[in-house]
Structure prediction request, 247 residues.
Amino acid sequence: MLSGMNISEQGTGRPVLVLHGGGGPGTVAGLVAHLGKAHRVLAATLPGWNGTPRPGELSSVAAYADAYTLYLAERDLADVTVIGSSVGGWIAAEVALRDSARRLAGIVIIDGAGIEVAEHPITNISAFTPPQLAQVAYHDPSKFGAGMPPMTPELLAMMRANQETLAAIAGEPYMFDRTLRARLGEMRTPALVLWGESDRVMTAGYGRAYAAAIPARRSSSSPRPVTCRSSSNQQKLFAGSMGSSRV
Prediction:
């Protein structure tokens, strides 16, 4: 297994691996805490995020998927649900496509990146200012930053470094792999696809195309974003959709 696989554990029960999006592990902290009440949660900090090192081998989303597939094998984990938000959803889909050992019970993709949908292009937010990001990523832009620590120079530098890592692994083409949409048709792992109707980075139309590409899937949408922008809404959807965590 690669060094630098930063994974914290909490709770007991069936294992759930949580993969955050481009904003870092804080974007799924509420979800991790909620799931930890009834599951063994393996919360990843993707290498290269929040000041962690990114080994040279991790130069693409596919490489991250290989690394987490190997992590599950080396830990001999089975009956695992993998939950991924944004780029983490893309990694989760790639892990499912590599699951020849049938270690996964299912995956949950929350506003996931990764596919090309010409009629619903992904909004490139790499150069957006915080106010611009609030307008496209939040149902209620006025709540941007709610619950976040004060914006210090150190925090701002970390956020910029996170975006640099994202650009290094998924910046060209921006946040998609031209082959993934077709390859999703080969997925045999059950999948739950969750999307926010208000998401203007990857729109609900993009989400519907994502769900339609996966044979063994269920999908659900919410009038509010279900990614990091609305942790309480995530929890309600999971309570109704996951049940005992089987997808």
Remarks:
- The beta strands are 6-10, 15-19, 40-45, 80-85, 104-110, 191-196, 217-222.
